[in-house]
Queue: 2 jobs
Job 1
Amino acid sequence: MLFRKTVVLLLSVSAVLCGLQGQIYAPAANDSFIARYGTDEVFIFNRPEYRAGLTASIVAIPSDHSSGWDFQWAVYDPIDSAYRSLPVVITGETSIIDTITVSSGYQVTMTKGITIATFRVWVVFNDLDLQITNKDAENNLLFGYYNCTSLDLRADTVRPAAFYYNPLTHAKVDAGNVYTKKWTTDNTDASNPPDRFFARVTDPPWKDTWYILTVSDNYGLSRKDSVFYISIQSHAEMTASYIPLTEDSATYPGTWIDMFYDYDKHSAPGKFSFDMSGSRNLVSYRLDFGDGDSIISGSDSLFLIHEYQEPGIYSVLLTTKSALPFECIDTIRLDKDNALVMDAATRTDFQMPNVFTPDRDKNYVFKQFEESPGTVTNDIFRSSEVSVIFIDITIFSRTGLKVHEFRGNMRDWQGWDGQIKDSHRKAPTGVYFYVITSLVAYQDPVDPINRGVLKGFFHLYRE
């Protein structure tokens, strides 16, 4: 609407269009509009705070901006619907009333010689009080208005009447204000409540959160009130990481690990570290590891290590619980769907090298590689598979001499270094045979390991 624009510009245009000899304006007014009866201006002054003191001013100025005008002011009296003249007549170029503290109507008569012009305006003080009603003296949401599934917010307003009169009919006219409600929070993870005075939040946040209600009207008046919600919701947060064998020397001692371990595999048995420290508002939790084992613990132990004995992909479930009396529950699951794969022990087929070169540089880290298609070279004779839990292996020369043997867990076998058993003599270049009479491993149903006797040969080369 045109009359919502800048007050001074509006009134100047109005005066020209009506052919008037001057006008009354209010440069500090927050808004203005034409009265419903269609002839007078209504100025709105917003109080900065509820019931705060405010003094408004209005100015009368003739169109020729010259001196010598007499200004006679009058104030509307709603008792008899008449304008009562003020006792002082002001002479000059302009006249101002700057002591207005209550809503009222004002009339000015400008006289200069035979020229007489009369103007009327209304000054309306606009106010609003907003209170969130279900909070304590510290602005915290009152007990009883929240639980694990919802929280309720209650607010109310006091809206002093904003009105003026129709001087022709003497009827009181409502200024016609329109109010807008808006809830917001200081928590980007929280949803905003419905924009109502009685609002329910059906997904309470797990962070402590300020809820702010703003009520605005169409005259630019705005009031805010806020309430602090101390969250009772538990929030389950968990990360998991595989512990490489080289970092677990207490359980898997020995320097052989650096030589034989494949860092890209999560070999069984395999350990994972679980970190629940990102969880919030928990006093206890249950961790189901997905292999049949679980643990119930308090908030004093948020870091755990669990060892998976068998190959597989495990789905791990964390369930947290907040304090009494609510004990709100939250869960989080780690599995393949959210890119945290519990493949603690997937294994490849069991293989032994077919070439053995023990005279290589001893700083050379154990590795299987192909020097030519189908030829795998090692500097230590041993399989890189560490998921075998038991192996019984014997190595013979072509003449039947037993040069090496081992019986036990594959992780304890440091391989054959090329020296003849029970001596410090180097085995000569040639072909050697191995016999595995017992091999026990966690079975992969797709590619099961052969539990029978395994035989093979390999070439030993010396540089």
Note: The domain at 239-338 is CATH 2.60.40.10 (Immunoglobulin-like).
Job 2
Amino acid sequence: MSDVGGFDPTFDFRTDATGPDPDSSSPRLKAYHKLLWSKPLPSGDPFDLDDSKPGTYLHHLSSRGEFDLTSDSASPTWIGWSQRWWPLKLEVIPRIPESELEQFRTTAHQMGGKMLFPGKQKGGNTINQARVRKPIVDRLDLTLECIRLHYLGETSPLAQTLVRYGEFFALFEDFKGYVDFFLLQDLVSDDLSSVDFLMPFAGFGASGLPSTLEEYQGYRLRAVAFVEARNRRMDDYAAGR
């Protein structure tokens, strides 16, 4: 970590990004991913990450397999999405003070708002590519629900995609192992039987996007609270390493 200084989960990765996408161009974000996720798996096997493989963001190779991983935002704001994707955008975003929108953007680009997923295509879209579409629309809570159902052997909008990356999810053994590894406890119930959704959820039949200003504002506040809680959890974990 000496090349980027100490661990600060509230660092805004837009500020050191060398391109328009911090997920691919922020040196500090990559260093933080390596720090947090290079650790033993639930089995005790090491899961060390490196960035030495050309054309790959982060890479793992061991007896457990070979995995090419990429960073992805876990707390979408949808502020920059086109009206084609989110028809209510022009009715919602202009009614929110810019200071609140910028706070949301800033929080979304902190470490608690980032995840690692397999980044190499395997017979179809990657997880990142599949989850940007409706009804998941980049939401980590909905993605996590799909992952919970995957471990139960049940169906979801991401079921086929997650099955293609079954070797990756097998690393964590079960839903608890996945949640604990990636420090996602603040997005699930205490007994891990359900996901704490950031908007009211009645199934995957809806688009996943807010349908009113009030719904967006409720989502925004809960998403910020989740990222801040995960930041604290990450800070505690990093301090104890």
Note: Residues 213-239 form the longest helix (27 residues).
